[in-house]
Amino acid sequence: MPRRYPRAFFERALKSLLPNLNTAVFDTAAKKEIFITAVNPVNHDADSVIEAFIDIPADIDTGDFDVLDAAKNKLTKDIISRQSIQPILEQMINRPMHLDMIRYHVYLQLEQVPAFGMKSFQVVPSQKNKNNVETQAAQGNNSPVLENAFLKVEVQVDGSLDVYDKKQDAFYEGVAFFEDHGEAGHAWVLDKKEPVFSTKGSRANVSRTHAGEAYNEVTVTHRMELPKNLQARMEGSDDTTVNTIVMRVGLGRTHRHLTLNIEADNHAESHRLRLLVPTRLQAALSHGEGQFDVPARSLERLIPQTGLNSPCMTSPCIILWM
Fold this sequence. Notes:
Radius of gyration: 24 Å
Number of strands: 22
Order of helices and strands: HEEEEEEEEEEEEEEEEHEEEEEE
Strand content: 35-45%
Shape: globular
CATH class of the largest domain: Mainly Beta
Number of helices: 2
Strand order of the largest sheet: 9-10-11-12
Number of domains: 2
Mean pLDDT: 86
CATH architecture of the largest domain: Distorted Sandwich
CATH superfamily of the largest domain: Golgi alpha-mannosidase II, domain 4
Distance between the termini: 21 Å
Helix content: under 10%
Largest sheet: 4 strands, antiparallel
């Protein structure tokens, strides 16, 4: 899909939403009012930690700020970074001009954003809080453990995760590791080639990259030495290359789920890299994302008699084709 299409959808949605905004309930005695609006596109109220960028005019910036709802309740936030910027304001009938702004990159704890609705908040500059400016990863907290009221997650030496669900009293050991095998098929047919490489039992680089009130994050870095191409894999030659995989594991203060952000720097050919999450749950179906739906698909492993019209196997895992 061309990039102009989603941009057009986004701009059309904004034009529909903006006339419905009402900031009259806020205290607007300040010289310059700053508001941000959260839009909730799902069918239930949202209490979630989001990543956001907030611009404050340089002439009223005081080094920190508070985010308030209409009842003047202060939202929990973590400041990741702060920098000076000059965004360009351009109009067709006038010459471009720049604005002197201070841009804050933050994690923000939103509360009670209505289903299929939106909620506005007021940004009020305040005195700098030493405990809340810049990333808090430098506080000396290098523990590989993430925990809130719902989950406890411990990152193991090999980068896999031990997850304890406090509400369900369920424990998932050694999940979220990577496996790689050769691929000699095409877009519709998988032709797996050995040997198989895995990060299970290896030694990953594990570091705490953010520690705050709203959000905590641990980064896992793998360096997988893989055959350079399919021929090198099948011949078992020493022609290898190093692929770097960076997985950021995050947990928000009110989250009942983990956030995984994965980046792979790939230098090998004809292989399939997978993120495996073996929950060992006894289930017959997997609800997988489809076009405009989340259909239920059978987990039964069918063995096709021929390569023609083979069933498309769907597993609850993440596959990265290389």
